[in-house]
Amino acid sequence: MQKGILGLLLTPDSQRLWSVAEVERETGEQLATADALASLHAVGLIHRCGEFVFATRAAFCMDRMSL
Fold first, then answer.
1. Tens of pLDDT along 7-65?
2. 20 to 30 A Cα–Cα from 19, which one of 25, 51, 53, 67?
3. Which helix (H) or strand (E) holds 62?
4. pTM for the complete prediction?
5. What is the pLDDT of residue 11?
6. To the nearest 10°, the Cα dihedral for 10, 3, 58, 53?
7. Angstrom distance (rounded) from CA 64 to CA 32
8. Which pairing describes strands 18-19 and 52-55: parallel, antiparallel, or unpaired?
9. What's 7's DSSP letter?
């Protein structure tokens, strides 16, 4: 779930703020999404701003290096 959500947030067309509700709709899994977002935030791959999330600079750099 973490990899899928991070991939969603790193999509070039989606480099924007995502509401948690939008991410939940995309995954179809409310509890698993909440757990994955908490884990991604804890390791510094996403920022949280209230009910919004977005990928960190570190996540974008990591994504570019894996190409």
1. 999 987 767 899 999 999 999 999 999 999 999 999 999 999 999 999 999 998 888 88
2. 67
3. helix 57-65
4. 0.89
5. 86
6. 60
7. 26
8. antiparallel
9. H
What is the pLDDT at residue 67? 62
- Say if residues 52 and 16 touch (Cβ distance below 8 Å): no
Assigned token pair, 67: 């190409």
Q: Comparing C-alpha atoms, which of 20, 25, 27 is closest to residue 3? A: 27
Domain range annotation of the chain:
2-65
Measured from the Cβ of residue 31, the count of other Cβ atoms closer than 10 Å reads 9
Cα of first residue to Cα of last residue in the chain, in angstroms, is 20
Query: Which of the listed CATH numbers 3.40.190.10, 3.20.20.140, 1.10.10.10, 3.10.310.20 matches domain 2-65?
Result: 1.10.10.10
